[in-house]
Design goal:
259 residues; mainly alpha; Multidrug-efflux Transporter Regulator, Chain: A, Domain 2; 2 domains; two-stranded antiparallel ribbon; 12 helices; 2% strand; elongated
């Protein structure tokens, strides 16, 4: 007859595990002998080894009791169900590992890889860390609302970075918002460039976003995000209104130019 310590050692588990199996009803707990100790026989050793084997194989403790009492047919069927569940879990974990690997650059969190590549291009043209982070957060709002469309828009956005005006705009804004001046005189140049780009896009018919143009919430959130990230954006918006345009990401003409 074995003590609980001898039982645990023989079966290759801890005393704590034996007590837990008692508590959940997997292993019967013997009565104490005259000396006050619990003694375990060979049957308990066999049961504990079977429990340990099933637990090590990944069988949930809640299912081990039924498996211990099942006949060969029921046992095989139950094991098949457990194996199927484990395969599904492995696939889920492998997917999670791939997603984690894609997040190593940081920008891929909540964003498609196409947008992350666009943010890399912003860095290449000289946009500051703060500017890229602001763009990233804005695209997170866009991607959450239009996950399929955002990928379609990326080639055109990347192509815009070949425009010297766009490159100049990002560099000026980077310098302005990395600085401390409340009313940087370069704000006027940034507003001039933005107004010129808006005029070009309007003339080319590139400002029609389709149904997305009438979905105000994401556009309002992006405008609010810009102001929340730096209150000086309000001054830039004011300058844009003076030039006949409203908004930050969805610029709309306030005054039609004379014929």
């Amino acid at each position: 007859m074995l003590t609980i310590g001898q039982l645990a050692a023989y079966a290759g588990v801890t005393v704590r595990a034996v007590r837990h199996y008692h508590q959940v009803g997997l292993l019967p707990e013997p009565e104490r002998d005259a000396s006050g100790y619990r003694r375990y026989g060979a049957t308990a050793v066999v049961s504990l080894i079977r429990i340990r084997t099933l637990a090590n194989a990944g069988v949930p403790l809640s299912q081990i009791g039924d498996l211990l009492e099942a006949d060969a047919s029921d046992f095989a069927e139950a094991v098949q169900r457990i194996d199927s569940h484990l395969r599904d879990e492995i696939e889920r974990l492998e997917t999670s590992r791939k997603q984690i690997a894609e997040l190593t650059a940081g920008d891929s969190l909540a964003l498609p890889l196409e947008v992350a590549a666009y943010l890399d291009r912003l860095r290449d043209i000289g946009a500051s860390k703060r500017m890229v982070e602001a763009e990233r957060d804005g695209w997170i709002l866009v991607a959450a609302r239009w996950p399929e469309r955002v990928i379609e828009w990326m080639p055109a956005k990347v192509a815009e970075l070949d425009n010297p005006q766009v490159v100049r705009l990002y560099r000026i804004l980077s310098e302005i918002f990395d600085g401390d001046a409340d009313d940087d005189p370069r704000m006027a140049e940034a507003a001039d460039i933005m107004a010129a780009l808006a005029e070009q896009a309007h003339a080319a018919g590139e400002m029609n976003l389709g149904e997305e143009a009438h979905d105000d919430l994401p556009h309002d959130l992006i405008d609010a995000l810009a102001v929340e990230s730096d209150p000086r954006v309000e001054r830039l918006l004011e300058l844009m209104r003076e030039r006949g345009w409203s908004g930050w990401n969805r610029m709309e003409r306030l005054v039609e130019p004379p014929d």
